[in-house]
Write a structure and sequence with these properties.
The complex is a heterodimer of chains A (178) and B (352).
Chain A: H1 2-6, E1 10-15, H2 17-25, H3 29-35, E2 36-41, H4 42-52, E3 69-72, H5 76-83, H6 96-107, E4 113-115, H7 119-127, E5 134-135, H8 137-143, H9 157-172
Parallel strand pairs in A: 1-2, 1-4, 2-3, 4-5
Chain B: H1 6-13, H2 17-24, H3 32-41, E1 61-63, H4 69-92, H5 114-127, H6 135-144, E2 149-153, E3 159-164, E4 168-174, H7 179-194, H8 196-200, H9 208-222, H10 225-235, H11 244-254, H12 258-268, H13 274-287, H14 301-312, H15 318-325, H16 329-333
Parallel strand pairs in B: 2-4
Antiparallel strand pairs in B: 1-3, 3-4
Helix pairs in contact in B: 4-14, 5-9, 7-9, 11-12, 12-13, 14-15
The chains are: A alpha/beta (178), B mainly alpha (352).
Amino acid sequence: MRRVSRMEKLQFLLLDAGPIIKLFSLSIWDSFIKNCDVTVSQIVADQAKYASQEFEDIRIDLEPYKQNVKIIDVDPVTVGSFYDKFNLQYKADIHPGEKETLAFLCSRTENWQLCSADGAVFRALAILGRAQQGISLEELLNKIGLSRRDLEWKYTRKFREKYTHMGQMDSIQDKGFS
Amino acid sequence: MIDYTLKEVSEKSGIGESSISEFENSKREPKFSQLSRLAEVYRKKVEFFLTDKPIIERVMLWRDKPESMKEMKNTQEKFYQLCEQYRDLEILMNEVKVPELPCPDVTDPEKFDYDRAELFAKKVQEKFRLGDIPIASLKQMLEEIYYVKIFYVDFLGSAISTVSQEFGPAILLNTRNKQWRRSYDLAHELFHILTWDVFRAKSEIESEPENKLANAFASRLLMPEESIRDRVKASINDKGQIELDRLDDIAREFDVSLVALIYRIADIYRLKEAEKYAKIAEQYVKTTKPRISHEPSRLPERYCDLAMRALREGKLSLTQFAKYMDISYKKAEEYLTDEEGLTDGETAISIA
């Protein structure tokens, strides 16, 4: 724990619903937000709250964490212009929450990192030429000293790499944009 | 669009009535999260609210439509949403297919009579290679070979069909109906789809003569004359009669109701007392053990397969997958299995 407290707080971190649910189910959400400045889109926050109702042991409500977790509500025009970049066939059909998150990331100049457990998100990031801004939960937890060995496939570095590679292949072949 | 009141939209979306009113009157722009919630309420994609493209009016033919217009629109939007999702999956997986469905020989609806409906049913039976018991493979052929989108939903009404430029031919059937009723509805709606250009060029609604032609087509398609004659010949007793028990067996075999079979037999053998026999059959059905009616899968197999492949290839997010498959997020997670041990070479077999 001492090692964790000496670490610099991770900034510019966007979280998707999957990792939020996992962090709550691992009961490490409180430790996690002590080590990271977390930003979550409003839709993702709603989505995590809704999805957690399906799990017996966790209830997610980010309202009480408003001091530590920034909730963003993006302008529809920003999301619309982001979405228009993709062509019909290669438009990854991602959830509005992830669209909002990706649109926010692409509209910012800071080096934001997006932690997701979704292949479509990593693939889209790679198509956008922003592969380095995607991070798996496994890598993120390692970074802040909260490593876990028992994470499922979709939270692993290998999972991120697999879908990032798919997006990079699309990008090399000039697929993806309209 | 579904005609919700301001109060209803507010309750369903969780957005205050005053805010919605301000959005409507362009006094304030909604945030993306609010648009997303409104999209859920109206069963639209959120992109629907981000474009100025004109709304395309959709023609949908109903069989036993409900009295409530709201109920009707709600079901139509649900049906449309499913079709749209299906088309999105086809686009994502690069599997958009243009079905080459058989066309009737006539183009003038006035010239479409019962004989032509019968001939057309025979043509369809042959083209689809449906064989002796058409219902055994009809749905499978329509879905897998002719790419007709067939969904099952619990709704007020019996069936809906449409042919859209966006997603092609589609049929909605009612899960609440008995299996044999759904079979009949499927064949009935198939007639509408195949004759869409003939009848819809003149009218967007189904006339009574068209409805009767669709019934004649369905009856002929599901119960081919040769097959029925064979069964009757094998079942007739010394007195030239067939017991209702035996007729019920034949009806089960062809997956039609006993009454529908009796009308078909009456038609083939030119029996004059069809209605009398039908009434006896109705009584018989009430007094005998009900036939087993299997619950259909709500979503087409091809649709589910496309969704699973799209998920695995990172073309569909997990949350969208859950929505498309109408399952919980937790359940959707189970579909993301660890595939890291499989290489491309291990997911294919060599033939040559």
